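User: For my dataset I need records formatted as: sequence, then structure tokens, nothing else. Please produce one.
Assistant:
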Amino acid sequence: MQSAVNVTAEVPRRDPTRENVSPAPAEHGGSTSMDLRQWTHVLLEEGNAESFWARIIEGFLIVLIVANVAAVALETIPSIYTPFARLFKIFEEFSLAIYTVEYIARIWSAVEDPRVAVRGAWRGRLAFALRPLMIVDFLAVVPSLVGQFFGFDLRVLRIFRLFRLLKLARYSQALQALLSVLLAERSALFASTILLLATMCFFGELMHLAEGSVQPQALGTMPGAMYWAITTLATVGYGDIVPVTALGKFIAGCTMVIGLALFALPIGIIANGFVTGLSRRRFAITWTMLRRQPLFQGLDIEALNTVLEVPTAVIAREHAQVTVAGKEALEFYLIVSGHACAETGEHLEELGPGAIFGEEALYHSANYSQTVTAETDMRVIAFPGDELRRLCRKYPLLQQRIEQALARDGRDRAAATRIRRLDDLEAENTRLRRILSDLMIHRVEPASPEPAG
């Protein structure tokens, strides 16, 4: 479905500025609360870690999470907790205050996300609060607050305080990739779980028939036999139930061998998806990250979600060549952070955040026209050529913007080539004039008289 939004403003191709993206000030009567809400949303939800305050706040919250988990563990040691009980209580109250403010701020600023705002202020915030990470935040705060007011035993609340450790998933791309793998592979994992349960029931029934009469206390019932089967399939082998007949030992051996394969299946699914996800996403490409890019401004929510499934994230180290002139154009690039230098012949151009290059990937069997070298470490979003062409067919606005940038580049490079040629011609004319001047002077000079004999 094509985006119905018509954007008349032309997207700038090059952004020579080196300033980080930040919320624009309110214009035409914008309120201060709106500015503060937008700033809060960018800071907490959009992962704008390029700014100084974002790095400070993110680092503080990570340290606070780790300190809370350490405090929960240290409180179980009487020799440490008894003399410092007052400090532990003050630290818990301070942490609760910080986490409560953070939770309220996330809920309050959530409407800055168009996907939340489209549902309305209250329904959108409610849907936002039901997201998995927000539920983790809720469980990390509210039970402890209830315990503070009603005087519950803090030992009962330790399990909820340990939920704060899960808050680290916000700041770890590896944990987010693992959660994404579990979500993406849920069908395969569910199928492997069903297979495991079926195998447990099958071998439990076999062992019940084989040794139920021999060991009626342990294997005389199906639940008891199924307990033996699951411990054997998992290769744990507590030793509390051991087959004593030859048939029972044979069934146990088959159960062990099949158990190795069955438990390796979900582990392999998760490991393969995790490694693949990390290799494809060297950093997290978020919906809000794409929304901030000039190239995608004006695309609706559905279009951005479709675009988000395509790119891969690349970290380009300083002095690394991202594209080389003359090589086949296989990928199209968008700079998220960092700076690069584009070289076309003798023409140099600075590229900054928001700039695009490698537009030649839009066409089949095209070659890059410029060499782009990273001047600093860069985060770059790469679109494979085939996927880029598919997106452009689906969203003509995207193709129009890329072609405009390519045409503008062609005009700029043609102008630069003409200027360079004019400079060369001027230098050649100056050299020729100098030569002609020397020849004329040589012709006009009178011949020197011959000496008398």
